[in-house]
Amino acid sequence: MFRFETVLLFMTQMFIRNPLAIARNYFVLLLVIAITLNITTIHASPIEQAQNFQEVDSLLHHRDFERANRLLETLIQQGQVNHDAWLSGKAYAALGSSLLMQGKADLALKNYLTSLQLLDEKEYPKEVSKIYANVGALHSQLKRFSEAEQYLLKALQLNPSKEDRLKYLTNLSGVYLESGQKQKALHTFNEAIALGKAQKNKAVEAILYTNLSNYYLEQKQWDRAINHAQKSLELRAELRQAPSVITLNNLGYALTQQKKYREGILCYLQALPYASLQEKKQLYYNLYQANKLSGENGKSLQYIEAYDQIKDSLTTLNYRQKVAELDAQYQAKERQRKIEQLAATNTLQGKQLRQQAYLIIAGLMILALISLVVFLRWRHTRLKEQLEKSQLKYRFLLVQLNPHFIFNALQSVQRFIFRNDQQQSMEYLQRFSRLIRLVLENSAKDVISLDEELELLDNYLRLQQLNAEPAFTYEITVTAAVERELTVIPTMLLQPLVENAVVHGLKGRTNGRIALLFSNDGNKLRVLIQDNGVGFLQEKQANALHKSMSTDMLRQRIEEINKMGKQHIEFKLVNKGSEASPGTTIQLTVTS
């Protein structure tokens, strides 16, 4: 629904944005400043060394990483030869910044830690403080919030300058907010805001007010969220900065929650021109929700279509990236295999030229080398198969729905059109297209949110209801304790059970009824699927629990899910009522 806006010192994602986007985001400027300070002000150095680090600074500014890294490695070697711990430590810190700008977080962390081993914090407190802050920000980027908090507190304990202290407090408040430490986050926000006002640093104040608006959104304190978001936008306007997409999104969400739909929609629309592709996806979904709540069904449909298009684009992009990564991994392994195989062959040939006394040892070496070649070949084949499976995965998404259901749906549309029932035709087509999209999108996932599953079930039951003779009714009830967006369940777990109740349980029955109840018990989601149909025993006599999923197949799938250990599912099927109309109840318990 909303996102954080942070000033974390080295967010990898900033380096993949275009220059105009970087210029619009103040926190990116802070990153560049932090890198510059880290490189050029760690220690007063001789003139020649100062010129070298200035050259490194210029190379990084122009993103000439190869030359910058070569120069830094030379400086590291000079420091090691001359036993100059300060020079080596400073060069390692600068190399860490260079690697982080290239998106190599692990190597950057390694160089930062090496720099900390070389620099004494008592002798160089300000320089070490900066490195602590960089390491803390890097840990935060990697979602290691405990380590991030530890290093940022260390940075603050070394009495940094007022400007650096403001940046560190801003980073620390973001860490507390993302790690769920609400009271610490609020206290640190207020301390940072007071310091920002004292320094008249309106740019950082604007970021802090955005984060505070997000904090109050989580607390559902809509008035405070609106007030802080508006303060952030006012400060950006004074600085002649472009509006923050995150701030406008937070403001629009808070206004929508207060049923001020028109004002909320205007905020979302104002943010769209400045939004990235991922941000547009969230904004279009929020526009769909706001228009739906305000009764603007036409616009709601327009925005959900735009949301789906953006989502498709991101899915395609992510899929291509995954395939490219797997292909690169495969190519690297293939090259390594060839190198190792060639080395093994050369070793074998060399061994064959040795004297007769070493034949036994040579035989053992040959056996070991052959085993190595076989292993490398096996590993190469397995990786190639994984690549081929990844490339074919998309094709399998097209066969997830029962073809019989699809043919019936299309015939139903034809029937509605023949009867000139335009309203029923439009509703059926909209729900059918939405159902197909949901199934195709979710088929590639292991789990989906309960909110998505409820939308899928509602569309499916409504389509069956429009097509059923005799008619039946259904009801989906979700208790207030269930967090629909945060609760996840295995993909396509409930739809086959509901399909069985409709197709087999209520077949030929007048006044048919299906009821779905979702309740929460701690970390357990309880699901009841009830119908007043013919009952399981009579169905079993007819040799059909479900023509597309038997009891054994269902239990096998649940067993496989339980083996994975991420969730545990308990399944129970019972009859209820009288012999004439026993009905069936399915009980599912999903433990996260």
From TrEMBL:
Gene3D superfamilies: Histidine kinase-like ATPase, C-terminal domain, Tetratricopeptide repeat domain. The chain crosses the membrane at residues 357-376. TPR repeats lie at residues 129-162, 166-199, 206-239. Pfam families: His_kinase, TPR_12. Keywords: Membrane, TPR repeat, Transmembrane, Transmembrane helix. Residues 393-468 form the Signal transduction histidine kinase internal region domain. InterPro entries: Bact_2-comp_sensor_kinase, HATPase_C_sf, Sig_transdc_His_kin_internal, TPR-like_helical_dom_sf, TPR_rpt. SMART domains: TPR. This is Signal transduction histidine kinase internal region domain-containing protein. It comes from Olivibacter ginsenosidimutans. The lineage of its organism: Bacteria, Pseudomonadati, Bacteroidota, Sphingobacteriia, Sphingobacteriales.
